[in-house]
Design a protein that fits this description.
The chain is mainly α. Helix content is 70%, strand content 0%. α1 packs antiparallel against α2 and α1 packs across α3.
Length: 67
C-alpha cells in the first residue's frame, strides 16, 4: 500500500466513524468531519499533510508510476 492509498483509506474511515458517532452519540462529532475536510483542503494548497509524514515514517512508499 502506498502513502496516498493509505491516506485515502484513513480519511474515509475517519469520516465514516465521525458520522456514525454523530448519529449515535452526539452531533458534535461532526466537528471532527469538518477538521478532516479542512486538513484535506489545506494540504492541497500547502502540499504538506501530517498524516502523510507519519505514514512515510512508518515505512510506506510513495505512489508507484502508472506507466
Amino acid at each position: 500500500m502506498t502513502v496516498n492509498e493509505a491516506l485515502r483509506l484513513i480519511a474515509g474511515i475517519m469520516i465514516l466513524l465521525s458520522l456514525y458517532l454523530a448519529v449515535n452519540i452526539s452531533m458534535n462529532w461532526l466537528w471532527f468531519t469538518v477538521f478532516i475536510a479542512v486538513n484535506l483542503i489545506q494540504s492541497s494548497f500547502t502540499k504538506w499533510c501530517l498524516m502523510m509524514t507519519i505514514l512515510r515514517k512508518l515505512g510506506l512508499q510513495e505512489s508507484r508510476n502508472c506507466s
